[in-house]
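Practice record 12: protein with 6-O-phosphono-beta-D-glucopyranose.
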Amino acid sequence: MIIKKNKQLPKDFLWGASTSAYQVEGANLTHGKGPSTQDVKTVPEGTSELDVCADFYHRYKEDIALMAEMGFKTFRFSVAWTRILPEGAGEINQEGIDFYNNVIDECLKYGIEPLVTMFHFDMPAALDKKGGWSRRESVEEFVNFAKILFENYGDRVKYWLTINEQNMLTLVGELIGTCDLTGVENKYKKLYQENHHMLLAQAKVMKLCHEMIPGAKIGPAPNISLVYPASCKPEDVLAAQNFNAIRNWLYLDMAVYGRYNNLVWKFLEEHDAIPEIQDGDMDIMKQANPDFIGFNYYNTSTVEWDDGTSIAGSGDQQSGGTEPGVYKCYVNPNLLRTEFGWEIDPAGFRATMREIYERYHLPMIVTENGLGAYDKLTEDGKIHDDYRIEYLRRHIEQIKIAVSEGVEMMGYCPWSAIDLVSTHEGVVKRYGFIYVNRDEFDLKDMARYRKDSFYWYKKVIETNGEDLS
Ligand code: BG6
């Protein structure tokens, strides 16, 4: 549909941006914080350790002031489980509780709504040693952690997200550093049992949130991107349906309707990977009742039919993969790519928003979207990231059209508020509106600089998305 008259975005649209604890905070093993899987993993070759990152732990006041200067209405950040509970369970680290109290208060001082992610790729190492999400106990461990968050922050935090990109933990966890499949006989069995526990933990936490904090809103935060068929061949369409189910709908069907997606169920049967489901689990799933859907979107995927002879393989979060006999990765010739090889697809963003809304009819907030690039700091302290502005502009345009088409959008939080450490490509892959003056291994002075996109986004927020020039 070509839209000639766009509706305005809702007046209370939540403009902001996102970060995650392990990628931005630093101070990863100090101030009482225990190690998470991220802190004990071997970092990818050529990338920095996580001890400093953007040093948000010490500089949050300066950073939040800059976010306020841009006019943020919300700031999405995650709470490091092991800053609150160094061992994942048991004793609470008061310094950790205080830190997030301070961050929340600092946001509220400027009228910025905290949007808190409870889990962003950082399972406590102590629990991981025992088996992490593969143990049934992990469900209650996560619920216990969530309860502490609700008790301490529920008086001020109205918006909560459960688990960041649970689908990516299942599909590419090894790359993100959250799972080790060495020696595992049936990886599907292991991964989808863990997935079942996460789904259950998420459902329980959503219910608990509604009980403990009346009026609070909570939702999931998977990475959702529509999967295209490589052609109009019926077999390619079937392959796209398969990957859509495995990549996207499994997670939202369960979060919203409390049921396993039928195509995924068959896929699991074929791989002897049906998870162990206890009596009552499915009733719990049905009681989750999310208030909204948070989702990360970077680009779409494209697949073709596979006759079962291809070799299995997965890329990173956005590079698709091949599952023999189910779908095969296909390079979409219609899309440009970022410097880091991720496709750019604003129209696919709209298609994704439409599809999610049609399936689930819940308001949505974009919890990540953005462009990773090698930004350059000029001698006069500027960062001319017109490529990022262009990327964001084209995506925001699509939100406006989607809203005009009747899709309910609550807000937009691109990745990332400030430069941080990427999941596997280090500090030099930058996403922020705020530049952090450090290199991969040289910490320099860590000074903050406003990129060109900083000033541009400020104007976008000021005009509630009307002026994207
Ligand atoms: C998402 C994650 O997958 O993509 C973030 O939630 C991540 O943690 C972001 O940083 C961008 O990916 P990358 O690999 O470029 O850091």
